[in-house]
Automatic annotation (TrEMBL):
Family matches, as InterPro entries: Asp/Glu/hydantoin_racemase, Asp/Glu_race, Asp/Glu_racemase_AS_1
Keywords associated with the record: Isomerase
UniProt cross-references to Pfam families, sorted A to Z: Asp_Glu_race
GO biological process terms, semicolon-separated: peptidoglycan biosynthetic process
Protein's name in the database: Glutamate racemase
GO molecular function list: glutamate racemase activity
Amino acid sequence: MDSGTGLLPAAAAVRRLRPDADLVLSTDPDGLPWGPRTPDDVTAHALEAARAAAAHAPEALIVACNTATVHALPALRAELEPAIPVIGTVPAIKPAAAAGGPIAIWATPATTGSPYQRDLIDRFARDADVTGVPCPGLADAVETADEAAIDAAIAAAARHTPRDIRTVVLGCTHYELVAERIRAALQQPGAPALALYGSADAVAAQALRRIGAEPAPAAAPTGGVQMILSGRPGALPATALAYAEGRLLAQSADGAVVGVRG
């Protein structure tokens, strides 16, 4: 679940680990974006999206949104666990710090400088050279697949990123959809290749662990996709096909693209 297309990276990561898994994708197009909302409002919208997904009796719920994880995870777990394990999404600051810096954390303006992000830095990257980089407009541009707006938002954030950065944490799930464009904007000629750290793969692996399932990437691609739009049955938005993750989820077992709305 997420407000919108930010759930695509985690859903695609689950699909790669278990092509036979049935997926329910619960979004909130009527209420997005969640970022500018108050914590209580984010929690209310996240609970509604989670309840819509829970009606399908899933084995686990992935909260594929940093904002919802920050504000709503306790409420989601209180309502759904232990019947449905709830897996949150945390920026990959710990592995990024272990790999060495200097580190930039690209995140929404609301997350950058928040107590939540500062706590993660204090816990896992206290001795590292860390720069928080707010990225106004980037998540919204990714959501609408607005190519010009994506380029402009990435360029603006890149201007505020120190040139000696070697490691970048993608602190919003939407950013993972444009990770290579972020890399291209930040990579300095002649410098070592930048390391980018997202959360999708780790979250997908954790979801499988929580339900006692093993990765089976060679399994038959029989898994289906059900889409929920603010509680209503629907289909993947056409904008999802702008990204490799969306195209993967839209493929049927024979490789045809299915279940997409314009």
